[in-house]
Amino acid sequence: MEEKLIERLESAVVRLEALSLRSGGVAVSGGDDSAATDPSIVAFDDFIGTCFGRVSSAAEKIGGQVLEVTRILEQALNVQKELLIKIKQTRKPDLEGLAEFLKPLNEVVMKANAMTEGRRSDFFNHLKAAADSLAALFWIAYTGKECGMSMPIAHVEESWQMAEFYCNKILVQYKSKDPNHVEWAKALKDLYLPGLRDYVKSHYPLGPVWSTTGKATASAPSKAPAPSAPAPPPPPPASFFSSESSQPSSSKPKEGMAAVFQEISSGKSVTAGLKKVTNDMKAKNRSDRTGIVAVAAKEGRAGAPSFSKAGPPKLELQMGRKWAVENQIGKKNLVIDDCDAKQSVYIFGCKDSVLHIQGKVNNITIDKCTKMGVVFTDVVAACEIVNCNGVEVQCQGSAPTISVDNTGGCQLYLSKDSLGASITTAKSSEINVLVPGAEPGGDLVEHALPQQFIHAFKDGQFETTPVSHSGG
């Protein structure tokens, strides 16, 4: 009896919130008063309360940046609700009107993406998962087959795949450490699959249904929370549609290179204004130009220290938990020997250097490095390689997980104890793994990880296989 009473009270609160939202400026003047209480809008409220509640609850227990990005996610869902209400009161806009209509949602997505930029945070995977997942909310931009988007249901599923890579990293990293992080990652996935997907499937399988009697142009909702995700491309310049385009080209003065060639072909003296170069002005005859480099200048340049533009070199233990190796250039003898299994190593912005990690550490991250070599003994959680070029990583002990993301050129050397490692790759190329041969003391055997795949639809589902090349 009490449960039924609570459900009725919650339903009444949802309708009162919808009415207050409409009276606060969401509804278009002269629109349908029942838009905010439409069954699809009420269902969206239920979807937020049911699915997002788990994400919010877990985020409050974690706090910090995870809670901050979760609140941005809540803003994006509220913006989408406002847009759904407005769609029922607005006629379908043109491309320019649609871009303006989606502007509030774009602003929220940009706000979430801004949190992933700059120096890599300890909760980078959480921020990236939340920011990338917001692209799923742009199913609302589907206007038909000609718009270049997938159907709304497929768009939600495809967009979640971008965020799932980082969500899986969270599950691996906190599997046996903190259940709140695991719950947050699982709840985030349930928010989109099946949450948002089932909502779209039930109410908007063919896209949003615009009003046929509302206003012709859609303006952005007032004071709407900031959104995320890319907006539709801007309309062509106004000059494309101006009356000037109907004038014959011969009646318009030519500009740019066309004007230059026209003047040359006219037979006029186009070189009349040029100055004559005398012999003493030629480089070979000038006494102030010489091919000899001054010794002092050369020595001064060679002796200058090589610093990264990002800042001075750094190799230090921070707060007793994190080794920071940053902006090292041309250093082949970097060593970390006083470490333990509770510490992590973060390598950032290094170039043409080699780092030896002598001991077991919890986690290793190599970020934005070029021609960097890393040799480590054991890692408890994972070794991550992100945004790098031409790196070599050697594991002399064990490593349960190795992930390579957005990297071009990566050589992985595995020992016998690390052959069971799980290797995850995304948006990367030229990844080779070298493993011990069958005979003890023999040469290493090189294996190239595939970067091209074939997707074939068979028996009601897609089967994915790597592309294989064979010589004739």
TrEMBL record:
Residues 312-449 form the C-CAP/cofactor C-like domain. Residues 239-251 have a biased composition (Low complexity). Residues 215-256 are annotated as: Disordered. GO terms for molecular function: actin binding; adenylate cyclase binding. GO terms for biological process: actin filament organization; cAMP-mediated signaling. Residues 227-238 have a biased composition (Pro residues). One of its GO terms (cellular component) is cytoplasm. Belongs to the CAP family. This is Adenylyl cyclase-associated protein. The lineage of its organism: Eukaryota, Viridiplantae, Streptophyta, Embryophyta, Tracheophyta.
